[in-house]
Design brief:
mainly alpha
């Protein structure tokens, strides 16, 4: 039991010292420290919970009246200290929060940081979105940090609003009940980073997507365009994760070649027949040129087919319309020989018969 009491007392002491450190932050506070307030408030709440958890353990291990009274006194004292510190932090943060209405412009328009531009209407900027696709995380993270997280004009509660509105699909599910408070921005952003900002898992996912890109069976402009664009996107993601992509000419080139149609492979072989080895950058450049050539030739072929039809249509002579009635009248006015002469059907049937015996008529 003594060991348990000592352990609880140690945890209580650690929590008290951490709260003292936060009180020193209050004493030495300067206006430029306002950006640290969300982290300080988060730490304060955590240390407060640790303190009261340790006191609860002490009450459990030592239920004498003297020990209980000491714990009650410690609780009251700590509650007052935390309340004063939290009030100070909120008061200083309120000055920053007063700019919220100016920062959240109509139609999600963002104004970046000039105090003298209140009368200027900025063009609408669409926020980046993220739906949980890990191969799109790096792009979303960098854009959101540049547009929202790094902005010193936006208060944390506004950043949280932008963050939650940017999450879609699977990425939004874990955060759908997050309350719009100043403290929750840093917590939510940290949780999102912990969930998706894992370079080891991202590298694996990029490699997996490269391997399972569907191959092209026949030559197709759309298919080739989609394959090249996705392949380049995944390789650029690996490069951003500091993988040595520049030295992977052979594996990347061969992986891409195995997904191409026979006509494109043959064209590449003719193009690179005198080269000593395949280079990934040259293969990508060749494929992009091929896509442009195929699109251009496809467009010219369509124009050549459509143009004569339009020209001939304007001068096409009107052919007399032939009807069954007209054919019957012609047949009726034609004299029939009494001999066994074969009569040709005016409706162009294979058998020789009069129109009145024609099954089509």
């Amino acid at each position: 039991m003594d060991k348990k009491i000592k352990s609880a007392q140690h945890k209580k002491l650690v929590a008290v010292e951490n709260i003292k450190a936060l009180e020193r932050f209050k004493q030495n506070f300067k206006p430029e420290n306002v950006g640290e307030i969300p982290e300080v408030m988060e730490s304060l709440e955590q240390h407060r919970q640790d303190f009261f958890a340790a006191v609860a353990k002490l009450e459990e291990y030592d239920d004498t009246s003297e020990a209980i009274q000491a714990c009650i006194t410690d609780r009251i004292d700590m509650e007052e200290r935390c309340r004063r510190l939290k009030s100070f932090l909120r008061e200083n943060q309120r000055k920053e929060a007063n700019s919220l209405n100016d920062s959240l412009l109509a139609n999600s328009t963002l104004a970046f940081g000039r105090p003298n531009t209140s009368n200027i209407r900025f063009p609408k900027i669409e926020l980046p979105t993220f739906d949980g696709d890990s191969t799109k995380w790096l792009s979303f993270r960098d854009r959101f940090v540049a547009m929202i997280d790094a902005s010193v004009e936006l208060p944390p509660i506004a950043k949280l609003q932008y963050l939650l509105s940017s999450l879609k699909g699977d990425a939004a599910v874990p955060f759908e009940h997050v309350t719009l408070t100043t403290e929750n921005y840093s917590v939510t952003w940290a949780a999102l980073l912990k969930r998706y900002d894992n370079s080891r898992m991202l590298i694996r996912e990029y490699w997996r997507r490269l391997h399972f890109l569907p191959a092209i069976a026949t030559e197709s402009v759309d298919g080739l365009t989609s394959l090249v664009d996705e392949f380049v996107r995944y390789v650029n993601g690996l490069q951003k994760l500091h993988e040595p992509v520049d030295s992977w000419d052979t594996p990347l080139s061969n992986m891409l070649l195995m997904k191409l149609d026979n006509e494109t492979i043959l064209a590449w072989e003719r193009h690179s027949v005198h080269k000593k080895k395949d280079k990934y950058s040259e293969l990508i450049e060749f494929l992009q040129d091929r896509i442009r050539i195929l699109k251009s030739s496809q467009s010219i072929s369509c124009d050549r087919i459509v143009a004569p039809i339009k020209g001939a249509g304007a001068h096409r002579p009107t052919a007399p319309r032939r009807s069954v009635t007209n054919a019957a009248s012609v047949q009726r006015n034609t004299p029939v020989s009494s001999t066994s002469q074969q009569v040709t059907c005016p409706l162009q049937c294979a058998d020789h018969h009069l129109v009145r015996n024609c099954p089509v008529f």
